[in-house]
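hiii, so i know i said id send this last week but things got crazy w the move. better late than never?? heres the sequnce for the chain we talked about at the cafe, plus the structure i predicted for it. fair warning i was half asleep when i ran it
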Amino acid sequence: MIQGFLALAGMALLVPPSAAVSPQDAKPKTVTAKPKATTPKKAPGKGKRPAAKPKTVADKPAAPKLAPSAATMRVHDWVSAAGDNHGLPFLIVDKPHAALFLFDASGKQLAAVPVLIGIAPGDDATPGIGAKQLSEIGPAEKTTPAGRYLAKFGLAVGKERVLWVDYYTSVALHPVPTGTAARKEKRRERLASPTPDDNRITFGCINVPSAFYTQLLSPMYKKKGGYVYVLPDTNPIEDVFPALHVQTMASSAD
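okay and structure toks below
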């Protein structure tokens, strides 16, 4: 029996310490993972769209800022003081600055917009130009004549309704065309450019922004018409508007 106990003790000594497993170690180990930090997402507001990216200058050409020139104000003051517009609205086309200024019957300014005008500088219309086809008009004849005109609405070729500035020389005021030829000439881009350098492109007619034409000009001129004063390119302004001689002399006397 003593030999049996010795044999059991010897077997216990042969088992290495690492092989002994406690009841706790026999259970599977549970690894508790630390929760990852997350940022809670905000629920999108109902009916709200994502904020639009701000438009850059390159998205759309900046509209030119227009202010009446000294010549424009001189004509305006004369018209208002003398009642030359006879109780009708009037506008002044400043050709050197490719700008148009609209006034009500009392002389109050209502709008200022850029315009497209005849491709050739000049203040006189070629005699008989109104009877020519567009294909017969030479480059030097494509002028917007200076002067004072009583403008009224009427029909043009193709039954298009336009504001006739001078029917006999075929000079009309109308919105910028939208046809293929106008797109090739980039008329809308020319109208929106910040300088007047590229605003000479028409056969002599005066092109204006469509919104201005439909919302302001047409309602004011559709009943009785109104006056149009086109400033000169090169001729003395007193020669185009002789009444300014009287204004000049009256100012000198004061």
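btw Confidence is low (pLDDT under 50) at residues 1-33. thought thatd interest u
miss u guys!!
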